[in-house]
Amino acid sequence: MRSWRRGIKEMDLILGPFSDSELAGLDPAMLDLYEALLNENDHDLYQWVTARIGTGSAQPKGPQTYAGLMDRIAAFAATRL
Fold first, then answer.
1. Across all residues in the chain, what is the average pLDDT?
2. Is residue 3 in some structural domain?
3. pLDDT single digits (tens) 28-71
4. Which is it for the CA torsion 54, 38, 7, 41, positive or negative?
5. CA dist., res. 74 & res. 60, Å (int)
């Protein structure tokens, strides 16, 4: 539910479908990382995702801790464009 009720609608539309489709397939460590990611600021998350899908290449890509998960979220989001 936290994936669908974010602070900005853009992140609802990115994280909501990702969680509906992908969370069941994540291992426990990746689920813990996803839970930590949900505590990050939505505006930061949006910049990190868009930087990875090529619409904001000059934007920061976020902490290295989240790199693999953010790449996966961005790839999923890119398929929905």
1. 91
2. no
3. 999 999 999 999 999 999 999 988 887 655 677 889 999 999 99
4. negative
5. 14
